[in-house]
TrEMBL record:
<keyword id="KW-0812">Transmembrane</keyword>
<dbReference type="InterPro" id="IPR004853">
    <property type="entry name" value="Sugar_P_trans_dom"/>
</dbReference>
<dbReference type="Pfam" id="PF03151">
    <property type="entry name" value="TPT"/>
</dbReference>
<dbReference type="GO" id="GO:0016887">
    <property type="term" value="F:ATP hydrolysis activity"/>
</dbReference>
<keyword id="KW-0067">ATP-binding</keyword>
<dbReference type="InterPro" id="IPR027417">
    <property type="entry name" value="P-loop_NTPase"/>
</dbReference>
<feature type="transmembrane region" description="Helical">
    <location>
        <begin position="133"/>
        <end position="151"/>
    </location>
</feature>
<feature type="transmembrane region" description="Helical">
    <location>
        <begin position="826"/>
        <end position="845"/>
    </location>
</feature>
<feature type="compositionally biased region" description="Basic and acidic residues">
    <location>
        <begin position="176"/>
        <end position="186"/>
    </location>
</feature>
<feature type="transmembrane region" description="Helical">
    <location>
        <begin position="630"/>
        <end position="652"/>
    </location>
</feature>
<dbReference type="GO" id="GO:0140359">
    <property type="term" value="F:ABC-type transporter activity"/>
</dbReference>
<dbReference type="InterPro" id="IPR013525">
    <property type="entry name" value="ABC2_TM"/>
</dbReference>
<feature type="transmembrane region" description="Helical">
    <location>
        <begin position="737"/>
        <end position="759"/>
    </location>
</feature>
<dbReference type="InterPro" id="IPR017871">
    <property type="entry name" value="ABC_transporter-like_CS"/>
</dbReference>
<feature type="transmembrane region" description="Helical">
    <location>
        <begin position="579"/>
        <end position="598"/>
    </location>
</feature>
<feature type="region of interest" description="Disordered">
    <location>
        <begin position="172"/>
        <end position="191"/>
    </location>
</feature>
<keyword id="KW-0547">Nucleotide-binding</keyword>
């Protein structure tokens, strides 16, 4: 009986803990309120004790209850009845669940107390303490009931207010009658939490308000199910452009590449922008997405009746033709990365995970979550991963994970086989069913793909020649005298239109027929005729601007930094070039230099022999030990200067990721730069410690025993060299120029390091260049850390060596001598300078030119 009670107690306690935790989280209680609820639950244990002890006092006594196990069932039934009455009395039916879970635990605790009392004190002596326990139980129970009632009422009132707000907001979202966009529904508080609060509080609150709460929950659920099955709903949106034109200034005058365009796309519809190569498809798409940075752009673009502004980037997604996926990420990590950067900062983690799973399910990649994206890595490595069609679908899922109302795609089927293209378009079509407004350029699609679109827009030489449903193409061709019945028997209507409007080459009548456009003048006449035909057509009204939600509460700089930092470290650890090549290279450098200079001589003089034994110490033959140690320090510092160039391909490749993602406003330059600097500093620290530690320990450096100072200089020098390489990678237009900049600076560092050539012997016309090289300060600090304070038979030989390499700022007696600490500070000033220049080059120089 005792074992069963113990097992029941453990199970009940586990269930109680789980239930309590979930309930407290769902109630969104403060710290003090949560503590009150937990204390009340614990205090509830005294209620069964009270009832149980009362029944024993009026019955046959405690001893008989202990010795007679058959009394257990009546007592248990009495407990359940009393708890039900207690729950009904306070009108909170949820209390019954908590108290019922406490029943086995209370029964076992009571049983243990009775047995201990019987054994230790006896039945007679135990009756008075039990009476005191009754009084204590009454006091604790009444206090707990009052506290729990107060907290529950406050939570229920708060939930009712939030539920009414959600219901009103989602009704406004459905009907398009909200007051302003600031009062739009909080998309990140939607999901199971809104439904559970709407319904569960109907059982938590008093019977009078249960019906109201239940109706609120139904309203929320109805609004959520209205054409929005995603965890993050898609706001209603309409995009309209009017008289859009793009021109370039050339030596021969103004060249117009996109003539005056007008059109629109609504939520739940899919628009195809089609035409021959050079017709202006990408120009139109880049202009609509505010990505056009070159040329003169005129015209107006409206989003729900409101002219485009910076908020457009938060309400739209642009999926480029070439994906920007990181090969070392898994499928789910890729979408998680974009979700962290695009979904509002207060999105609950549960909702974010659900949105990711929904998007992967929508594009058919739910079963490939753990698979690497794959592709080529910098340095010649490659990872097996997704196919071309799967990568394209993953790119779409990553772009729309935050449910933007506008989705733009640049040739999503380019380079795919027929089946993969159809799968990709099915995934895009699923976006429109969720409420997205989709516009995409597409090249030579099959007829099955064209039929998926609600509207098609054909461009020819930058002119608009048709904008309407695919079913109207035949009528338009007939009215334009371009319909060819014979060709229609063997060619799809889409191919017929593309063949007709493509000019710029000689068209054979046997292939293209007689009814086709021959030159640009024919295109202009066709465009003018089409514009005249639609001039009196009513324009589709925009959605009410106030009914649109601009998702402008994206994560802040700190959240962006942590997201990018995790991504940078993950990429560094999974890249074979980082782990194998760079770490292996530094290990070999340290091992090779340590073996060549293994246990170097530690004496300043050669071992005296013969007549040299009679000479005083200053006149004895000096050994080559100082020159050898300076040489190994110079080689070690030079190796730490050169090896960061191995990471140049990684920096160049990473800059391309930033350029594309910054154009989409995913994050800013500062968090990206900081994440890059920190991750590279970690790698450099590991590499520097590995190479320098092995070499110095094997060679017996430093002579002064100040090993930590030497290691600090070498590791800091390596980090400074890495910052130099990063700066060159961001300043240069390509990798070749970056290598030239880095190599040229390193050569200057070698010349003015005060080792190979003494700077005192250099002409003053060039001697100033030593102040621009960080190796000059590193060598001065390393030599001082190596020899300072060392003596040979009480002769300060080490200080003599240090004096020959000291850095003097100024001339004559007023010259300031830089100490080891000053050199270390100068080294870090170089690091900060390289890092800052790299940051500004990244911010202002790494911009896409479209």
């Amino acid at each position: 009986m005792g074992l069963l009670c113990a097992l029941g107690s453990s199970l009940a306690q586990t269930l109680l803990n789980i239930t309590s935790k979930e309930r407290i989280e769902s109630l969104k209680l403060s710290g003090m309120e949560a503590f009150t609820v937990m204390a009340t639950i614990c205090a509830g244990l005294s209620v069964p004790l009270l009832w149980l002890s009362y029944s024993q006092d009026t019955g046959n006594g405690i001893l008989s209850a202990v010795l007679s196990p058959t009394d257990g069932m009546p007592l248990l039934a009495l407990q359940i009845v009393s708890m039900a009455a207690f729950a009904y009395h306070v009108e909170y039916t949820l209390n019954f669940l908590f108290v019922a879970l406490c029943t086995p635990l209370a029964f076992s605790v009571t049983d243990i107390v009775r047995r201990l009392g019987t054994i230790c004190c006896g039945a007679i002596l135990f009756s008075k303490p039990m009476t005191m326990l009754n009084v204590l139980g009454v006091v604790v129970s009444l206090t707990g009931v009052a506290a729990y009632t107060t907290v529950s009422k406050r939570a229920a009132a708060r939930a009712r207010g939030e539920s009414k707000e959600w219901a009103a907001q989602y009704s406004a979202l459905r009907d398009g009658s909200s007051e302003d966009r600031e009062k739009q529904p909080d998309l990140n508080r939607m999901g199971d939490s809104s439904i559970s609060l709407g319904f569960s509080f109907s059982s938590l609150s008093t019977p009078k308000s249960s019906t109201d709460n239940l109706q609120i929950g139904k309203n929320v659920l109805q609004a959520m199910q209205l054409r929005r099955q995603l965890s993050v709903p898609v706001p209603t949106c309409t995009l309209r452009w009017q008289d859009l034109e793009v021109a370039y200034r050339t030596a021969h005058g103004r060249r117009i590449t996109l003539h005056k365009q007008s059109g629109s796309v609504q939520g739940g519809n899919m628009l195809a922008i089609m035409g021959a190569s050079g017709a202006g498809k990408s120009t139109l798409l880049d202009t609509l997405t505010m990505r056009k940075t070159l040329g003169d752009v005129s015209g107006r673009v409206f989003m729900n009746g409101r002219e485009q502004d910076e908020g457009f980037f938060f309400a739209s997604a642009y999926v480029a033709q070439e994906d920007n996926l990181i090969p070392t990420n898994t499928v789910r990590e890729t979408v998680e990365f974009y979700a962290e950067l695009t979904m509002p900062r207060y999105t609950p983690p549960v909702m974010r995970k659900r949105a990711i799973s929904e998007r992967l399910q929508a594009v058919g990649l739910a079963d490939k979550e753990a698979k690497f994206v794959g592709g080529k890595l910098p340095g010649g490595f490659s990872i097996r991963g997704l196919s071309g069609g799967e990568r394209r679908r993953l790119n779409i899922a990553a772009g729309v994970v935050h449910s933007p109302p506008l989705v733009f795609l640049d040739e999503p089927t380019s380079g795919l086989d027929a089946f993969s293209a159809l799968c990709v378009m099915e995934s895009i079509r699923a976006l429109t069913r969720a409420g997205h407004a989709v516009a995409c350029t597409i090249h030579q699609p099959r007829q099955a793909i064209v039929d998926m679109f609600d509207k098609v827009l054909f461009l020819a030489c930058g002119h608009l020649v048709y904008n309407g449903p695919p079913s109207g193409l035949k009528k338009w061709l007939t009215e334009s005298n371009l319909w060819d019945p014979e060709r229609a028997m063997t060619t799809s209507i889409t191919d017929m239109v593309l063949d007709c409007i493509t000019v710029g080459f000689e068209k054979s009548e046997s292939i293209y027929g007689s009814r086709t456009l021959r030159d640009q003048e024919d295109v202009e006449r066709l465009a003018e005729a089409y514009l005249n035909s639609i001039s009196g057509r009513a324009i589709t009204p925009d959605a009410t601007p106030k009914s649109f939600v601009v998702l402008n509460s994206r994560p802040g700089v700190l959240h962006q930094y942590w997201t990018l930092q995790r991504q940078q470290l993950r990429s560094s650890l999974r890249s074979p070039g980082t782990l194998a090549a760079r770490i292996g290279l530094h290990f070999l450098i340290g091992l090779l230099m340590g073996s060549v200079y293994f246990q170097m001589n530690r004496s300043y003089i050669q071992p005296p022999d013969g007549i040299w034994l009679l000479l005083p110490l200053p006149l004895q033959r000096h050994s080559s030990m100082p020159e050898d140690r300076v040489g190994v320090l110079f080689l070690l510092a030079l190796a730490q200067t050169v090896t960061p160039n191995c990471a140049m391909p990684f920096f160049i490749d990473d800059r391309q990721y930033y350029t594309k993602e910054a154009a989409a406003r995913l994050y800013g330059a500062l968090p990206y730069h900081l994440a890059n600097v920190v991750s590279e500093a970690v790698v450099c620290a590991v590499n520097g410690v590995l190479a320098s530690g092995i070499a110095t320990l094997m060679a017996g450096l430093p002579l002064s025993g100040n090993w930590y100072s030497t290691m600090s200089f070498l590791v800091s020098h390596h980090m400074c060299a890495s910052a130099l390489v990063q700066m060159c990678a961001r300043l240069a237009p390509n990798q070749d120029v970056a290598f030239v900049l880095s190599a040229g600076y390193i050569i200057v560092c070698m010349l003015f390091a005060n080792v190979v050539v003494k700077v005192a012997t250099v002409t003053p016309l060039l001697a100033w260049m030593r102040w621009c090289t960080f190796l000059y300060f590193s060598m001065a600090g390393l030599i001082e850390a190596e020899f300072a304070g060392t003596k040979e038979q009480d002769f300060p030989a080490g200080d003599r060596v240090v004096d020959t390499f000291r850095i003097r700022w100024g001339d004559g007696e007023d010259a300031h001598i830089l100490s080891e600490g000053d050199c270390f500070k100068c080294l870090w000033c170089f690091y900060l300078f390289f890092s800052m220049v790299g940051f500004f080059a990244l911010k202002f120089g790494s911009k896409s030119q479209i």
